[in-house]
## 1
Amino acid sequence: MQHLSMEAQVLLHEVRSQFGESVAPQPSSDKTARPGDISLTVPSPGHPGHFLEIAQYGTVVEVRYDDARPPGPAERLWIAPEGQFLAAAQGVGAFLSDLVNENVVVVRERLGWLTRLFRRDCEDLAWFREIEELAANTSARIVAVYSWHGTRSRPLARESGLTSASSCRHPRSIDPNDYRLSV
């Protein structure tokens, strides 16, 4: 691996504080990446085949959780003004801590009928959500919830063994009590 940029070194420190020293940086594949920018991939321990990617290019950090379903991953973006990358990297570290501690989860949410009419290529999208927000949301649009270790996950109907066509199209309701935080 080539020499890491200063931003890459700072971000690598934050990521390793959450996932350990085994996280190995790879050169960033983003077209706007500079020499020394990095990409880090961490497999989800709670969901085989799912992974987290943290990409740094310049003063931008993108965190993506890929659940191996199209049309793409849940994404969160940090853009730091020049000279303020440390604060952005610390924000990424805090977000990753919330993700690992399952205070942030990935939610697959069914699109509304009008959006699906225009976007025939997808039925649902993945988003990062705070667990408190999810506890207050009893929407039938939630089709899956993935937590880092899997303790708060609610998989897609076809992943949980339900096989009827209607179970894939109409998600089971989410009980908000499943997501109450214990204090």
## 2
Amino acid sequence: MKRIFLIVLVLCFAFTLVACAGASEVFIETREPVVVSEVQHLFFPARNFEDLARRSADVVRVEVLDERVEWLMLWDNIPSELDPADFYNVYTLRRVKILEVFQGISQVGDIIDVFQEGGEVDGELWLNRNLIPMSSGEELLLFLHRPDDKSLAYPMNPWEGAFRFVDGVWQQVFPHASPDDRFAVTPEELEALAEYNGDSTA
């Protein structure tokens, strides 16, 4: 009788270990990234197409190719008494291909990186609630700022930086913009902008 009791006890212990191991694997696979910082930015929405185009360096239709997250230092002329390591930040970079140009220095066929601060690296999340959702393979209309005209491109602001073509018009991608700040862009407005700028829309 004691032998049977010991066998049952050992089996119960073994089943418990297996169950715990399985639970820990599920936990590891589904655990959320640790939020280590939250990015905060102030911006002033344009609230209409004309104002947004006036503020933007580039207005382009693009295909999103892929996404990566990197530590980058984008500051120039850091004073010698400061540590450059303190100026690194986490950025999400979307590699996009230019399909159509309505305004700006980009050319059809160019591939550029579109930056936004924030992202997840090694299970740690630098949270940016204004990060514009973009998926590989989709086409978007982007309004971009180009501070040095060449190496950097980032959305003018999260609410109005990216538009998706829905029901015959370009509608804002960012899901949290207030109703008062939402507007659509028509193909006719883009054609008029390209004609005004003399840009190639091929």
## 3
Amino acid sequence: MSKITVEIDDDLEDIVESVIEDVKTELENWLKENPDSDECPELYNDLDYSGSIHEIIDGAVPIYTNHIEGLFYLHGDKFEDAFDDAGIGDKNAESWPSGWKAAAIYCYLEQRLNEWWRDNAEDIFDEWKDKEEDSEEDEKDTEKED
């Protein structure tokens, strides 16, 4: 009997980090466009108004069957739990253009993004707001000196 060794690239955390970095960029852009905001924007009402957040997540989902199957082999339970938690349908190939497994990965990425947002967005907003206030004070001080 012969043995076969198979290698699977586990790039799930890289994919998650990519989604988070892209959403951070969207947040920074939103803050630049809305400098008078007194509240942290809501992820899906404010930032995703144009669909950009869904595009980021969707664009991060692997498209090749081998990649999807490899990630599912390593993380299938997490993906299935996220899919079930989303309550978006049955686990069958007929219901999903790219297959339910790709949809499950999407659900997982969205879930991880939501967790990150809950833990970090307000802090990022507060840091930005503090910088804005400091910048305004510096401008006032400069005007007084002139």
## 4
Amino acid sequence: MVKKKISYIALKEIISDLLVNLSAGWFGVIFIVPNFSGLNNITEFAILTFDLIMAILCLLISYLFKTSK
């Protein structure tokens, strides 16, 4: 049985691309949730703030993976 190793660089690329896609999903949720939820203003604001923070965090971590050597 042959063991294949995934290189560290390839793994960083995969994680970075995954985080970019997750960030796109979080930004999509920011536009979809207010249109289809019947939540009150405070709850909706908290959810939208959380979604925005997660989207920016995913983009930031992805950028750090892409720029690290």
